[in-house]
Amino acid sequence: MRLSNASPTGNPAVRKLLKLLSQRRQTHGPHTNTHPRCFLGLLSCLFLAGLYVGSLYVWRSSSPRDHPSVIKRRCASVLLVSVVSPAVVKTWIHWADVKVSIL
């Protein structure tokens, strides 16, 4: 069996694919898949994660973390973030115009 030294662009299928890719790059640009909604979704996720973790450390106390008053305050903080989170998600769904259908 003899291997050819011909370039892969000699293949008609490869040439056609390269032509299609270059046409797509010219018409759509290199960054058409990046959309502002994706960035907003990512920022919303990071915001909710930071809000949840930050809510655990909002309260300053000289008591150890196992003290009942510290546990109650942290539970209240997590409850508050759990109530706020669906509102953030609903706002993002509304802004991003996401259609949610069940079945």
From TrEMBL:
Q: Which UniProt keywords apply?
A: Membrane, Transmembrane, Transmembrane helix
Question: Which domain of life, per UniProt?
Answer: Eukaryota
Any keyword DNA-binding?
no
MF terms (GO), sorted A to Z: metalloendopeptidase activity
| UniProt keyword Membrane present | yes
Transmembrane stretches, by residue range? 39-59, 71-93
One GO cellular component assignment for this chain's record is: endoplasmic reticulum membrane
Picking any one GO biological process from the record gives: CAAX-box protein processing
Q: What is this protein called?
A: Uncharacterized protein
* Provenance organism: Neolamprologus brichardi
